[in-house]
Write a structure and sequence with these properties.
Belongs to the UPF0235 family. InterPro entries: DUF167, STEEP1_dom, UPF0235, YggU-like_sf. With 284 residues, the chain is an alpha+beta fold. It folds into two domains: 91 residues; 119 residues, YggU-like (Conserved Hypothetical Protein Mth637, Chain: A, 2-Layer Sandwich), CATH 3.30.1200. Helices cover 15% and strands 31% of the residues. The strands form three sheets. Strands 10, 11, 12, 13, 14 and 15 form a six-stranded mixed β-sheet that branches. Helix 3 runs parallel beside helix 4.
Length: 284
């Protein structure tokens, strides 16, 4: 007689199965719930024709909260005509499927965001970190900046899902513009200048700031605290915690410091705030 054995498994003994993390996406412009899926759209492939994100509905469980928007004929660059079945959130198109292939859902570029605008979705009394502040490998945080130039003073204007919008006194094409951006963001985030790296963005007015040694949550908390400070007459945010000590020195790149407080030209390249405090200590 063969020997028989009975094996009993419980949920506590079962191995953890990956892929159960859900991602919630909202319409970027209305803030309404658009879909919940197991797929992270940031890692989804792009369609070459229009840069939309390709979501495989057979590979990922997906719940859509969209309405039918009818069909539309699109002529591609190669001359082929494609029939799309559009999906809307409210009156805004956010995705489509191609006729004859319902397996793939194409999410339009820039249509959805994981950043919730609804106040009721705030957790623990705080705001979730927006997508413009993301964590990369090796402890690097990336901040997407949108820059207004020729403002009265450096300022943190707005934090949105897409960008951290700041103002600088220099023209965006000026050679000292990047130096002013780094100095201002250093005062906002509270890190050393060596922890910051500025990278070109999608256009002249958009740049990527790399911050090492801090998490996205820490960067966002410091920016949010600075934005919650005193506002100017145009509703712009704080210009930095240390500037309240020296209100006359609003443009604080190194060249401005040398001209304002009479420092020699040999000080070029040293951080403006460091030069300022050294100068103040030397004054009797």
């Amino acid at each position: 007689m063969p020997r028989r054995a009975t094996l009993t498994y419980s949920s506590e003994d079962a191995p953890h199965l990956g892929g159960d993390e859900l991602h919630v996406y909202y319409c970027r412009y209305s803030g309404k719930h658009a879909m919940t899926t197991e797929c992270d759209l940031l890692t989804a492939p792009r369609r070459r024709a229009d840069s939309s994100r390709v979501l495989d509905l057979e590979a990922y469980t997906t719940k859509l909260y969209m309405s039918e928007g009818g069909s539309k004929l699109i002529r591609r660059a190669n001359g082929n005509v494609e029939k799309q079945h559009r999906l809307f959130v409210g009156k805004l198109p956010v995705a489509y499927s191609a006729e004859g292939n319902n397996r793939y859902l194409y999410v339009l570029e820039g249509a959805l965001t994981s950043y919730a605008k609804d106040e009721q979705l705030r957790q623990d009394g705080g705001t979730p970190v927006p997508p413009c502040i993301t964590g990369l490998e090796a402890g690097v945080t990336q901040v997407s900046l949108e820059i207004d130039d020729r403002t009265d003073r450096p300022s943190l204007i707005k934090i949105s899902a897409d960008y951290v919008r700041i103002g600088i006194t220099q023209a965006i094409s000026h050679s000292d513009a990047n130096e002013e951006i780094l100095e201002f963001m250093r005062s906002m985030v509270g890190v050393r200048l060596g922890q910051l790296t500025l990278v070109r963005g999608e256009s002249t007015r958009h740049k990527l700031l790399m911050v090492t040694g801090t998490s996205p949550a820490e960067v966002f908390q410091k920016l949010e605290a600075s934005q919650a400070g005193p506002r100017n007459s145009r509703g712009e945010g704080s210009t930095g915690p240390w500037q309240t000590m020296f209100p006359a020195l609003e443009a604080y790149n190194a060249r401005s410091f040398r001209s304002i407080i009479g420092l020699p030209g040999s000080c070029h390249g040293r951080p403006g705030k460091e030069l300022l405090f050294e100068h103040c200590r030397a004054v009797p």
